[in-house]
Inverse folding.
């Protein structure tokens, strides 16, 4: 900051004229300023605040990961005025920055000022005193929009007047559902938060704050100056992410108002501009304009549901690892419909995942084999014109299908190596379509009820048992036979029943060798469907597996899982994360004694 101060002596000297060193223990107003890369404007904003005629204020600047001199300039103000507090966070967008300010605010009222805006010198004095005089929870002032030396009235109030009830307040502020040009009583909104990670978060917060406060006074003789910054994110045009945010926040606002009987009039969901045409979308109709003149209205309810097609025609475990992606889609787009396209053997893996609405089989080795099979699949595919196709592996066949069925967005994983796990890589495929944070949800698999009755029959007499899976697709990943024999014998000595699971000829032969060695276990090799295996695992006390598909199914049904990896190269890609699953990964010294060592298992199960 030293170099910055040397080149900004004028700012330092100017601020010292307005320096304020007294501690304001009980501020009347807390002013929250989210700031991101606004070095050209923040001095104007903060000068208007430190010069306020109301001295008992606190000014909270939340530096939202700025990469320019925003933080340095704010820090200069903090060094000259004790009322200015500067806190920094990684860039999380305006909603998160405002929430951080609300968390530490101490004022009787809270006001929000954007870092490129400014207010009259008597703004907070008039707002606070008028609110106190009338005993209300909100105050609203005039607002102007300033751009290129032009000033346009944004909200102009004619008289000092009180209003009660959300409908009266909304009418009084002329549907100006933004948080600037207003103050709110802190104790009323202290638990209210902005949605984070999105644009256009103002209106849903503002309507809830209005509903909670329920009383307002208008203050006509002071002004909030809103600067129309041509380089702001919103002015740079609507990206697909921003459009999604605008639609979802506006629908949230409309739905809240409908549920709480608040009249906000004809609130548009989205405005769509073409060369000559403009279409204004509302919840129950669309208005069509040409050259600015309204032509006609079409009474079609706005459909916010989006169809997402997730393609994973790989393998058992990998299909399950898409479930976190599906849950993220539902979280970001709650009205969405998720269609899962998988290979024929994994239909049941996809069908009973949480958040999946329908499954379509791509039988690449049967009826959809080759170019004619691809054409047949496209012809019969009923989810044409979907919002997005998400292809979890770079695959020309799925890429071609996605375009042939006219998906609006086609997102395909690249083939670059990554340190991320498969689950995390699948999750991030949604990122191009949203500003919201992508979460690493644990997989969820919901075993159908009819399966449970069958599994109860085949497990008759087994109340407590351990499931063991010793074989995988590749022989180098299999458990050594002597380790398996020792493990089963030690479990038997501890009076633990063992259920042995696997698929294919290799698993059958492995099981026969275990029986010859005198091991006691229930053999379910090739005897369960995928859903039945899921229920067997759900009933187990513990799963010990070398097969990644089986271990992922165990995690998905909530079974404590010991994941054994003899191939260290696959650990980062396939190992279940202990932060989100009740699991432990074994890599080195995988002996029966180590596996059953209680110090290693005490967080998982008492064996």
């Amino acid at each position: 900051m030293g170099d910055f101060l040397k080149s900004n002596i004028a700012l330092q000297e100017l601020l010292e004229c307005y320096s304020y060193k007294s501690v304001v223990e009980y501020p009347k107003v807390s002013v929250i300023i989210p700031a991101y890369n606004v070095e050209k404007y923040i001095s104007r904003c903060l000068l208007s605040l430190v010069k306020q005629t109301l001295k008992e204020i606190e000014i909270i600047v939340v530096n939202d990961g700025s990469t320019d001199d925003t933080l340095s300039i704010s820090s200069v103000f903090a060094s000259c005025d004790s009322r200015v507090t500067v806190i920094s966070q990684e860039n999380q967008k305006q909603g998160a920055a405002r929430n951080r300010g609300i968390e530490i605010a101490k004022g009787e009222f809270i006001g929000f000022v954007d870092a490129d805006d400014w207010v009259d010198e008597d703004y907070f004095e008039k707002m606070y005193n008028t609110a106190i005089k009338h005993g209300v929870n909100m105050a609203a002032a005039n607002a102007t929009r300033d751009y290129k030396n032009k000033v346009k009235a944004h909200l102009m109030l004619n008289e000092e007047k009180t209003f009660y009830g959300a409908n009266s307040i909304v009418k009084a502020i002329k549907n100006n559902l933004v948080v600037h040009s207003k103050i709110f009583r802190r104790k009323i909104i202290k638990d209210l938060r902005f949605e984070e990670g999105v644009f256009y978060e103002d209106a849903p917060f503002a309507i809830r704050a209005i509903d909670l406060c329920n009383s307002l006074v208008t203050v006509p003789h002071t002004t909030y100056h809103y600067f129309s910054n041509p380089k702001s994110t919103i002015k740079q045009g609507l990206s697909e992410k921003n459009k999604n945010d605008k639609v979802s926040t506006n629908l949230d606002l409309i739905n809240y108002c409908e549920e709480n009987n608040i009249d906000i009039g004809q609130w548009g969901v989205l405005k769509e501009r073409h060369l000559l045409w403009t279409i204004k979308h509302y919840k129950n109709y669309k208005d069509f304009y040409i050259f600015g003149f309204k032509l006609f209205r079409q009474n079609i309810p706005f459909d916010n549901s989006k169809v997402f097609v997730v393609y994973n025609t790989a393998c058992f475990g990998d299909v399950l690892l898409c479930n976190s992606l599906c849950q993220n889609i539902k979280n970001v787009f709650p009205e969405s419909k998720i269609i899962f396209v998988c290979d024929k053997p994994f239909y049941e893996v996809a069908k009973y995942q949480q958040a999946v609405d329908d499954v379509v089989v791509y039988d690449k080795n049967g009826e959809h084999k080759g170019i004619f099979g691809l054409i047949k699949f496209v012809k019969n595919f009923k989810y044409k014109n979907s919002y997005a196709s998400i292809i979890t592996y770079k695959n020309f066949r799925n890429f071609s299908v996605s375009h042939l069925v006219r998906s609006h967005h086609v997102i395909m994983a690249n083939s670059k190596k990554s340190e991320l796990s498969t689950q995390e890589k699948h999750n991030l495929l949604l990122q191009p379509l949203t500003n919201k944070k992508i979460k690493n949800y644990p997989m969820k698999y919901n075993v159908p009820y009819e399966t449970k009755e069958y599994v109860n029959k085949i497990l008759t007499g087994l109340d407590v048992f351990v499931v063991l899976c010793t074989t995988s697709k590749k022989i180098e990943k299999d458990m050594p036979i002597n380790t398996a024999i020792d493990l089963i014998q030690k479990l038997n000595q501890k009076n633990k029943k063992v259920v042995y699971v696997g698929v294919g000829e290799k698993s059958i032969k492995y099981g026969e060798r275990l029986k010859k060695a005198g091991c006691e276990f229930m053999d379910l090799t090739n005897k369960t469907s995928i859903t039945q295996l899921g229920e067997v695992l759900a009933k187990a006390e513990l799963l010990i597996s070398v097969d990644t598909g089986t271990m992922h199914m165990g995690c998905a049904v909530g079974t404590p899982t010991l994941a054994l990896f003899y191939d260290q190269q696959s650990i980062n890609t396939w190992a279940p994360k202990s932060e989100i699953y009740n699991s432990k990964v074994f890599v080195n010294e995988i002996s029966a004694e180590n596996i059953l060592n209680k110090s290693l298992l005490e967080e998982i199960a008492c064996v």
